[in-house]
Amino acid sequence: MNKLEIAPNMLYRAAKSYIEAQDDFDYIQAIILAGSAMYICEPLLEEQGRPTQARERADRIIKLREACVKMDNNKLKITWDAKLLTERNKEHIRCVSRVEDRKVYNALKHSGIFRFDKKTKTRYTEKKASDDLEMIDILGENLDFRTAAEDIIIDAIQDYKNLDFNGKFKPYNLGIEIRRVLDCIFLEDAFG
After folding, report:
1. Is the dihedral of CA 126, 132, 137, 143 positive or negative?
2. pTM for the whole thing?
3. Terminus of the chain with fewer CB atoms < 10 Å: N or C?
4. pLDDT at residue 97, as a whole number
């Protein structure tokens, strides 16, 4: 079985879980499935030299931060590229944006924060697993798994659709119910 076949099947199940959700656990299931599919697609997009949804979002943030906005005769005037950022600042924004975009998925898939020290070549614990159990620490007071599920499903679908399928596997060989999810504008439309 090919991962390019597995990913859209996970996206279909994520979308179905989202649409038919009865409680937060259905949204959590959707987040895990869509996040797994996304992590199949993102490295392929990067390998193909194509932007991921996370990268495009970060680049929009950069574009806005480089703009100068002011009012001129009661009209909003935007000068693009007015305050150019350094490459280091841009990479920092991309990194922070990605961490924020994926924090719910990453928090759900494991407990604890572990790092690797390149100098000493040792793994160390930044946050113990037992200290990393409360989702309120990740989402804050507004525990909105529905929105987190919707965001990651839509991003993962778009990343999948942006792949260049030049191998044996072709997405048109997928079942109609899966193609409906991949082609819908609103998730609800795929199941209507």
Report:
1. positive
2. 0.82
3. N
4. 83
